[in-house]
Amino acid sequence: MVVKAHAFDVGDYVVYPKHGVGRVIELQEQEIAGMKLELYVLRFEKERMTLRVPTNKVEAIGMRKLSSDKTLREALDTLKGKPKVKRTMWSRRAQEYEAKINSGDLVSIAEVTRDLFRADDQPEQSYSERQIFEAASSRLARELAAMEKTDEPAALQKILAILNEHAPKYYAEQATA
């Protein structure tokens, strides 16, 4: 019997593109339709969800370890940049934002967070804009929290502090344009 090394160990935090940060709580073997399958059992605390992922499907799904420090810095720098607001229909932009969030790519998620951020003195967001912003900022905060060994609310405060510090200069540019 050949023992294969696993990409993730029990206790590791992992990023599942469609659900965000989860933790490997167990490695299971199950027989399904006469085939033995090795499964990672992932726990997503925020959603109170448990997911079983076959070890041989990890790459195809895009499941990965937490981002590197370099990628995290790049994502936080992205938050400091100028928001890119396209003048296309909202439904099309919403689809693009959802795709970026579900890609699991930290920098793409940071772009959505930056582009949909509204400071307190800015015009009110629509309900769907707010929902997508909250989904993106929450996903970003959970990965930041896991990397910095803190909790999601503290990580979210850090993200909002960066946005509140850098966004006003771009709003001032818009007002004078």
Automatic annotation (TrEMBL):
GO terms for biological process: rRNA transcription. Pfam families: CarD_C (PF21095), CarD_TRCF_RID (PF02559). SMART domains: CarD_TRCF. Coiled coil: none annotated. It comes from the Bacteria. InterPro entries: CarD-like/TRCF_RID, CarD-like/TRCF_RID_sf, CarD-like_C, CarD-like_regulator, CarD_C. Residues 7-117 form the CarD-like/TRCF RNAP-interacting domain. This is CarD family transcriptional regulator.
